[in-house]
Amino acid sequence: MGLLCTAVNLYVLAIVIRIVLSYFPLNPGTPAATAFSYLYRATEPLLGSARRVIPSVGMFDFSPIVVIFGLRIVASVILGC
Length: 81
What we know:
Blueprint: H1 2-21, H2 31-53, H3 63-79
Helix pairs in contact: 1-2, 1-3, 2-3
């Protein structure tokens, strides 16, 4: 269970870092752009699925918030983290 809790926490951290990096202009080829690319590929399957269900409000995308809350609920209820 500890390994799954750690995996959930790392995934939540990846989503948060992706959110923060999305606020900055990234030049292609830089380490930050490479990190963002990896984070995008790792988090987009879950965020993209949530985005199809949860409509954005204006320019705000609430799917990361919903996914983070969902992961934390699953981690606490099912995994006991």
